[in-house]
C-alpha cells in the first residue's frame, strides 16, 4: 500500500475569502520560475500571492500519484547539485532554507544508443573527457577543442544574463562590449559548430545526445543552449530525495513566512491594466485581486495573447515580437508502474537515450513524413531507482517514465473534448503508441517484459490541460539562434507593472527557469535585489 494519498496536492486551495487584504505583488503560475521569484522576494520581506490553476503547485516540477505509484512529470534529473558552491545548488538552498536534499545518479548518468551501439556520458570533467576519448581515440583534438568552446560560451553567457536586468542604455553598452568578446560561434547552430571540429557523425551524435533536454536537434538549436545543458550535467545527474514534488513543498513555507501564499485551483482569466499600468488580475470566479505588480510565469504566448486584453497599450508590439519565436516540441510520456522494487528489477540510475541512428535530423524528417516510422528519440528514466526514499514510501513498487516526440497535430481532433472523456478512438491511439514505447523499453531491458502492472500515456492535450500550454510545448520557446537575439525576452516588460519570469526569460530546464525567476526578483528587489545578485553570481 502507498503511504501517500491518492493525489499529491501541494498549495492551498483558492477561495476568495482566503485572500489577504493586500499583497505586494501577484505571481501567475507556480512553475519553478514563479516559485523562485516569489521565494526570493519573500526573503526581502515582500508579501507575494502565487496563483496556480492546477490542483497542485509546481508546474512541470509537480508529481502525481495514481494506482499506488508516483511519477514526476518533468524533473527527470538535475545537474550541478553535488557541490553546495554551484549557483544552482546555492539558489535551491536559498529558496528552500536548505530543506531540499539530493541523491546522485550513477556515474554513467546518460547512456546514448545509436542503433545497436551505445556510449556513456560519465560524471566529472576528467572522466567525461576520458570516456569520450576512449570511445573516439582519433578525435582527441576535436574533443578538447569542443570542451574549450563550451568553457568560452559559459563565460559569454554571463553577458547575455547581465543584459536581462540592466536598463536599456546600459545594456546597449554591455552588448557593444560583449560583441567584441564573444566567439563567432556563440549563437550559431550546434551542428554548424561541431562540423567545424570533426566530420565524425557518430561523435557529433554522442556530443549532442542530450538534445531532447531542449527539444531541438543540433541542426536547429543554438550552440548556447547545447553548451549550457552539456556543462550543467558534466558533473553528473541528481534527483530530489522524496520526489519532484518536494521542490514546491519546500519552497512554499519560505513564501508563507512573509505573509504570502500559493493558491491552487486559482485560474487567472485576465491581467488587469489601467491608465497607470497593471492593477491586478481577474479570476475565473469573477473576483478581482488588486496589486501594483503582476509577474507572469506562464510563458510569453499565454501572457500576451491570452491574459492581456486587446486594448492594452503596448500589447500589439509584443504580439508582433511573438512572430520571432515559436513554441517548443510537444511530447508523449508513458508512466509505468511495476510490482517489484527497482533493485529487484535491476533498474539503473542511468537515463537511456535511444536513437535509431546518428542521423538525427533525417530520422526526425522520416518520422514527420510517416508517424509509423521509428521514433527519432525515446528517452527512458527510472525515478524510483534515483530516489532513495521511494521504496520506503512505496514498498514493493517501482516506476519508469518514457518520453518521445508526440506532435500536437496528432491529437488536435480531440482538443475540444474534456480531459478523461475523449472517446474510444483517442484511447485506441494512445494504446497503440503505448505499446510501441513499451517495445522500445523491452529491447533494452528484456527482464521487464511481463512485469508491468500499470501504465498510462499523456499527450500534448494533457500538457495543455494541466499546464495551459496550448500546443503541448514542454520547453516554452524553441532555443534557436533567433530566440537568443530577442532582447525583449527579459523580466521587465514595457507595460508598467507587468513582469515575466520562468523559462522564457533565459532558458528551459529547472535551473534555467529558476535563474529566470532569480533575475526577476533581483530587478524587483531594489537594493536588496542587488545584494541577492552579489550573493548568487559572485
Description of the molecule:
Helix content is about 35%, strand content about 20%. It has about 550 residues and is an alpha/beta fold. It has a domain at about 10-100 and about 240-325 and about 485-535: FAD/NAD(P)-binding domain (3-Layer(bba) Sandwich), CATH 3.50.50. A seven-stranded mixed β-sheet has the order 9-8-17-18-19-16-20, sandwiched between helices. α1 runs parallel beside α9. The protein is globular and about 65 Å long.
Physical arrangement of strands within the biggest beta sheet: 9-8-17-18-19-16-20
Count of beta strands: 21
Estimated structural class:
alpha/beta
Largest sheet: 7 strands, mixed
Q: For the record, what CATH class of the domain at 12-101 and 241-325 and 486-537 applies?
A: Alpha Beta
Query: How would you describe the shape?
Result: globular
* CATH architecture level-2 label of the domain at 12-101 and 241-325 and 486-537: 3-Layer(bba) Sandwich
- Quaternary structure of the protein: single chain
CATH superfamily of the domain at 12-101 and 241-325 and 486-537: FAD/NAD(P)-binding domain
Q: What is the CATH topology of the domain at 12-101 and 241-325 and 486-537?
A: FAD/NAD(P)-binding domain
Fraction of helical residues: 25-40%
**Number of helix segments?**
19
Q: What value does the Rg take, in angstroms?
A: 22 Å
User: Uncertain regions: pLDDT < 50 for 5+ in a row?
Assistant: 1-6
What percentage of the residues does DSSP assign to strands (E)?
15-25%
Mean pLDDT, nearest integer? 95
